[in-house]
Amino acid sequence: MPTEHIFPTGAEAAADLAGRIARILSDAIAARGIATIAVSGGRSPRPVLEALAKAPLDWTKLIVTLVDERWVEPSSADSNERLVRETLLQGPAAEARFVPMKNAAADAYAGQVAAEPDFAALPWPLDIVLLGMGDDGHTASLFPGAAELPNGLSSPARTMAVTPPAAPHQRLSLTASAILDSRHIFLQIGGTEKRAVYARALAGGAVEELPIRLALCQDEVPVEVWIAEG
Ligand SMILES: O=C(O)[C@H](O)[C@@H](O)[C@H](O)[C@H](O)COP(=O)(O)O
């Protein structure tokens, strides 16, 4: 059962989440000399990443990567890499080592072949995986109905390529096993629709129906959820 942190607004939830992330990363650096975080894209993480960038961390000891990426140029407004560079990797935080997902391959499938060694070489388990969730219950780029979903849920690889059934761009994504090879999973949700999907996911059922269940319906990795009521 996840630990829930409920706030009236998204801004308050984001500020609290950023503080929690900073404390865990600081403890990881103190304990192991290095800390790793994989962050999601989309709209929700922006205020968290902007607040985290201001945390007084030894950024030279931090590895930042992505939970998933749209197969677009990093200059694209749809790029998760661009989101991270514009929000988190600013000021002192720009000293962090960033491991991108997008590479020069023509598509996400060739891109996955090129990216996998870089992700396999990360110091697993990751300290934090920051997830979001779509209204369809997807997380990362593990989309219900995607042809690649069964592989994404079972593969021992760290990354997978996927063509979402109803979202733009091919994607590169962490697999379920990579997401679960972490010390902390944090999920950020807000709004009525997502809170309803979250409640359905918690009630149990097939992970293929609501892939967020891969994180919510397991007891191996501690999961905390930041819920904005507004
Ligand atoms: O690349 C992406 O789109 C994300 O990684 C994706 O999994 C996201 O977390 C959800 O789609 C929620 O997105 P919002 O935070 O924008 O609602």
TrEMBL record:
It is an enzyme of class 3 (hydrolase). SUPFAM superfamilies: NagB/RpiA/CoA transferase-like. The keyword Hydrolase applies. InterPro entries: 6-phosphogluconolactonase_DevB, 6PGL, Glc/Gal-6P_isomerase, NagB/RpiA_transferase-like. Hydrolysis of 6-phosphogluconolactone to 6-phosphogluconate. Keywords: Hydrolase. It comes from Sphingobium amiense. Belongs to the glucosamine/galactosamine-6-phosphate isomerase family. 6-phosphogluconolactonase subfamily. One of its GO terms (biological process) is pentose-phosphate shunt. It holds the Pfam family Glucosamine_iso. Pathway: Carbohydrate degradation; pentose phosphate pathway; D-ribulose 5-phosphate from D-glucose 6-phosphate (oxidative stage): step 2/3. It catalyses: 6-phospho-D-glucono-1,5-lactone + H2O = 6-phospho-D-gluconate + H(+). It comes from the Bacteria. One of its GO terms (molecular function) is 6-phosphogluconolactonase activity. Residues 10-217 form the Glucosamine/galactosamine-6-phosphate isomerase domain. This is 6-phosphogluconolactonase. The keyword Hydrolase applies. Its EC number is 3.1.1.31.
